[in-house]
């Protein structure tokens, strides 16, 4: 099922253009009938945060995301999978991550995108540190047991 | 052997990476954690709860029981919080 | 759970701007952490089709989509739900439908978007007629039992 | 009472909508389908397999067993294929 799947992985500090990525996904296969996107957005946690800082493991971040996407492409009949994950300091409202899954079938696109997000959360080497709005020194975000549960259902 | 640390593991140990010579009896990722904990207070503080420390060998996740033979770089870090 | 959810429903012949709709969804709540989009795209069925023509029931189309979205807003903690469904003659590659679900939580956004699509397929009064590339007179697309199954799982 | 037809139901009946006076014994959506089938060949062809015909009263889906009393408009159409 993965032979025709185009996989794009980018790890970058810069913002990305979601609309342009959707167009790339639509162009990747002539039989694309469904495109699902997931955008993860930096929240201000009810005004508590000025920013989030994302540390990552260069090299492994790209490799691990590529492994997760390859696994997804083997499980579902998707024509393209795109993952863009940002690092560095991000303000509330900014995009952190984008996943785009394109397929002939809507359920495959939904499942592949949801699978990618669950495994990005638990397996991609990124760590978030909070920068509080009150100027105090921030804490590292703790991993959630929920996220492990979400990944284990696949 | 290159060791790399991330997030609060890096902050607590106080360096982002270092080169070490591992003795022959350090065979698994778990052995490495024990050996590092004996290197001083900063290591002990960073690695005091080994079960929350993730280990990657040559940029792939491994379990603590797995061997580290042949590693060019080993990374230690907390559970990931990306996405 | 639905009290804070903003629902937008549009039934139109014109193309829509997916990126602009994502921005509206992000702006609809201060605690948006996840935005899921679904785009349904007109396929050419391996070159067989020149176009799809979508007939709809004006008035009921908007009302029924609104009912489905209200149901979704009651089931999941979403901050906004947007559905845009086009009608008229659409060429391969053109967007047919867009669903945008925004939430603090990624699973709620995925589930609400997937639920909306499943019920749009089975309950929204739209009908697709094929316009074959060879100029022959086209047939109405038949409803799929798969789609009823997908809706019945919720 | 306004009747509206869509997709191949509209094509087979040959009109998009019409006004009709329903006799008192037509109480449910199923009764309406039977009454229409008796109106002529075009209706019979359009509605030959009642179980694939969907009915909406005042722009809401109803089951064939439900009453149509109080309807301002009733629409008949095939299973939907949008999305």
Task: Describe the protein.
The longest helix of chain A has 18 residues, at 106-123. Chain A has 154 residues and is α+β, with helices and mostly antiparallel strands. In chain A, helix 3 (106-123) packs across helix 4 (145-152). Chain A has a four-stranded mixed sheet with strand order 1-4-6-2, with helices on both faces. Chain A is globular, with a radius of gyration of 16 Å. Chain A contains four helices and seven strands, in the order βαββαβββαβα. Chain A has one domain (6-152): Alpha-Beta Complex (Aldehyde Oxidoreductase, domain 3). With 83 residues, chain B is of the alpha+beta class. Chain B has one domain (2-77): Beta-grasp domain (Ubiquitin-like (UB roll)). Chain B is built from three helices and five strands, in the order βαβααβββ. Chain B has helices at residues 7-13, 29-37, 41-46; strands at 2-5, 17-19, 54-57, 60-62, 73-77. Chain B has a five-stranded mixed sheet with strand order 2-1-5-3-4. In chain B, a hairpin with a 2-residue loop joins strand 3 and strand 4. Chain B is globular and about 30 Å long. Classes of the chains: A alpha+beta (154), B alpha+beta (83). Chains in contact: A-B, A-C, C-D. The A-C interface holds A 17-19, 22, 26, 30-41, 43-46, 93, 104, 106-107, 109-110, 113-114, 117, 150 and C 17-19, 22, 26, 30-46, 93, 104, 106-107, 109-110, 113-114, 117, 150. Strand 2 (34-41) of chain A pairs antiparallel with strand 2 (34-41) of chain C.
